[in-house]
Amino acid sequence: MNRTKGDEEEYWNSSKFKAFTFDDEDDELSQVVNSLRDFVDDDDADDDLERVSWSISWSIKETSSNSGSNHEREQLKNRNSFSSYAQLPKPASTYSLSSFFRGRTRPGSFQSLSDALSDTSAKSYAPELGRPKGEYRDYSNDWSPSDTVRRLRKGKVCSLERFRSLQDKLQLLEEAVSMHDGNVITAVLIFLKRTLSKEILFRELEVRQVALRHLIHFLKEIGDQKLLLDLFRFLDRTEELALTHYREHLNIQDPEKRKEFLKTCIGLPFSAEDSAHIQDHYTLLERQIIIEANDRHLESAGQTEIFRKHPRKASILNMPLVTTLFYSCFYHYTEAEGTFSSPVNLKKTFKIPEKQYVLTALAARAKLRAWHDVDALFTTKNWLGYTKKRAPIGFHRVVEILHKNSAPVQILQEYVNLVEDVDTKLNLATKFKCHDVVIDTCRDLKDRQQLLVYRSKVDKGSAEEEKIDAILNSSQIRWKN
């Protein structure tokens, strides 16, 4: 290129960069902004100052874009040349920085910054600021065993997976035990139960009795009988092992299968007292199966009066001994001792105490209003042949049971008179309106005042009032008051 001498001197002596002065108004920021003047929307500028302000239009691509964006990406994928890429249409601007900073919204454009901040339904595309590192420590792996236990005690979320070695796990358990918090100990034991083999877990807990007791209780609560049996077998606790095995009969519903299972429990190493109970349980269920089959047949045949008048409401199977005795006294009271369903047979077989037998038989026969059987239950003979009433449960309890089953007043009075304590007798007689007993007792006590008080409680003109008047007017009684 041919230049004149003057042009060359002007070229070499000139520069597009100017030295910095404090009076220079065109700083670097203004140059950058003014260089982008073409992108400024004139509609957004209200004055000369805003023509050099933040009015750069920009757009944000969402990961879940609309169908138009998907179509453009498909065009990008199918085109191979850079020139074709340059011919793609430029996406329309949806956000305006000038709108954000000036708090204004252009028609058809996105909402202003103040509106965007106040609009809770608007979707935010700006990246979240990083949280303080301390907030992530709850989920990190930098907690020590003591810190972890303290956090568990406060109910905070804390992962135990970082404790992988046996030493770390045992240290965690020891920290939990030292806190004396059962919930924390159980939480750590659940973690050890899941991550350790049975042999290692049992071996380590054998020397840690507090944790061992918590594990035994936890296994009983969740019903993990298999692991509990393995634990007792490892610890050589034979009696607890036997009791745990016996407890499994509760999960067997079929009577025959339960009976066979109980038979296998008889030879287990129970204590002497428990062995007797296991034997009685097996014998009782065996009897109940026989009685149930026989009574079901009699009830369906309809030829037995007691089953016609009082149909059975439930099966006798798996019932307690006292319930079985009541059932036998209700349906089979008069049967011979040699039958399995006889109450006397049950009493002797299971060594039922006399008081328990009398109380159960009385409740059953009184419910049927079989007063003759009730009377025979308390009648005894001495070696001279004389009869006498005797109640091992006390006649005051007999009176209460008879009244509960709506016994006639004549029968109640008979048994109230047999109560030895005078005050108890008067209270029962007054409570159950046994007038003759009250009048006769007051007469025997020569208590005129109490007799006068009771006279006011009976009906006017009744036989009881006449009897009281006759006693009060009698000259043969010397009253105490």
UniProtKB/TrEMBL annotation:
Ranges for domain Vps16 C-terminal: 165-265
Gene Ontology BP annotations: intracellular protein transport; vacuolar transport
Alphabetic keyword roster: Cytoplasmic vesicle, Endosome
A matching Pfam family: Vps16_C
Subcellular location: Cytoplasmic vesicle; Early endosome; Late endosome
CC per GO annotation: early endosome; late endosome
UniProt-annotated stretches for the region Disordered: 62-83
Predominant location category: cytoplasm
InterPro entries membership: Spe-39, Vps16_C
The protein's name: Spermatogenesis-defective protein 39 homolog
Species, as recorded: Phocoena sinus (Vaquita)
